[in-house]
Amino acid sequence: MSRVVRLLAAVGSAVALVAAMPADAAPAKAKAYAAPFKLGPSGGDQFSYHSATADGTVTVARVYPVPGAINCTKGAPYAKLLVQFRATHAVHKVVATYDSAVVDPFTFVQLALRDAKKGNHDWYGLKTVRGAVTGSGTVTLKPYMPEGPFPKVLVVEFGLQQSSACPNADEGTIHFSKIEVS
C-alpha cells in the first residue's frame, strides 16, 4: 500500500509542477512578417553593385580585375533588409524564408538579431550561410545570448554580403518572402 501512495504522491507532484510552470515558459507562437520590408544598410566600392528592395529582393555583385600582391582591397558589397518589432518575451528562433536564390561561393546569406538602439547595437545572434545557394529554402537563427529586460524593440537584419577577393567576379541574388520570429 505504501508503494501505491508514494507513486500517487510522485505523479501528483509532477502534475503540480507542470501546472505551476510560468506562462512564458511555453513556446511562443511565431509571428510572421512579409514584404514590404524596411531597407537596411548597404555599401561597397566602385567595383561593386548592391541593391535591396522593399519587396524582399537583395542583389550584390563585384568584378575586381587586379590581383593582390600582398592583400586584397576593401570594398566588397553588402545589402540588407530589416524587420523591426516590439518583443515582450525572449526570442528563441528567427527563420528567413527565401526563393529565387542564385548565390555564388564567395557571397554569404546573413540573418541577424539585434536591438534597435542607435549607435552601438547589442547583437544577439548572427547566422551566415556561405554560397552556393540556389532555389528556395530557409535560414534559421537561434540567438546565442538573452535579449535582456522586456518589452524592447528588436530588429531582424537579413541580406547578402560578399567576401573581398582579388581578382574576382562574384554575384548573388535572393528574394526573401517571409521572416518568422518565435
Report the order of strands and helices.
HEEEEEEEEEEE
Using the 3D structure, state the CATH architecture. Answer: Sandwich
Helix content: 10-25%
Query: How many separate structural domains?
Result: 1
The top-level CATH class is Mainly Beta
For the terminal residues, how far apart are their CA atoms?
47 Å
- Per the CATH scheme, the topology name is Jelly Rolls
How many beta-strand elements? 11
Question: What is the C-alpha radius of gyration, as a whole number of Å?
Answer: 22 Å
Mean pLDDT: 85
Our estimate of the beta-strand percent is: over 45%
Query: What does the overall shape look like?
Result: globular
What can you see in these coordinates?
The N and C termini lie far apart (about 45 Å). This protein has a single domain, classed as Jelly Rolls, CATH 2.60.120. The protein is mainly β and about 180 residues long. The chain is about 10% helix and about 50% strand. About 25% of the residues are buried.
Provide the fold topology:
Layout: H1 2-20, E1 31-33, E2 38-43, E3 48-52, E4 57-64, E5 78-87, E6 94-103, E7 107-115, E8 123-130, E9 133-141, E10 152-162, E11 168-181
Antiparallel strand pairs: 1-11, 2-5, 3-4, 4-11, 5-10, 6-9, 6-11, 7-8, 7-10
Describe the structure using short key phrases:
single chain, 182 residues, mainly beta, Jelly Rolls, 6-stranded antiparallel sheet, 5-stranded antiparallel sheet, 1 helix, 11 strands, globular
Outline of this structure?
Helix content is 10%, strand content 51%. It contains one helix and eleven strands; from the N terminus they run αβββββββββββ. The protein is globular, with a radius of gyration of 22 Å.
